[in-house]
């Protein structure tokens, strides 16, 4: 394994599923926020977006249990994906091939701001390479 990435954030859109060579793949985007302090000591927020692919039964489970706004912890490998658009132009982007998606709830967050979430469900497995 070349790299491991862990992202905790919220889905920016509902998951989409499709079939690739007979295997289901679920795609969704996850956003996390980074707080940055400026030179004048004020704070700024930067939102970062990650594209995620979850394969097989794990992808089917994610598609049925997640929706826009769901909080997740995604663990996987960052890969470069290339494809050609309708005009034949080669496009590239980085994508997290997830082997573990943990569905995280916000229960209790208002009582214990900043603490770890109190409930979660996990979908794990090997990446089909």
Q: Would you kindly provide a written description of the structure presented here, covering whatever features stand out?
A:
- It is a single chain.
- The chain is 8% helix and 57% strand.
- With 129 residues, it is mainly β.
- The chain has one domain: OB fold (Dihydrolipoamide Acetyltransferase, E2P) (Beta Barrel).
- Strands 1-3-4-6-5 form a five-stranded mixed beta barrel.
- The chain is globular.
- Residues 108-120 have low confidence and may be disordered.
The fourth-level CATH homologous superfamily is Nucleic acid-binding proteins
User: What structural category arises from helix and sheet content?
Assistant: mainly beta
Shape: globular
Quaternary: single chain
Order of helix and strand elements from N to C terminus: EEEEHEEE
Say what the CATH topology is: OB fold (Dihydrolipoamide Acetyltransferase, E2P)
First-residue to last-residue Cα separation: 11 Å
Q: Uncertain spans, ≥5 residues at pLDDT below 50?
A: 108-120
Broad CATH class: Mainly Beta
State the major sheet: 5 strands, mixed, barrel
> Total number of β-strand segments?
7
Question: How much β-strand is present in the residues?
Answer: over 45%
Order of strands across the widest beta sheet? 1-3-4-6-5
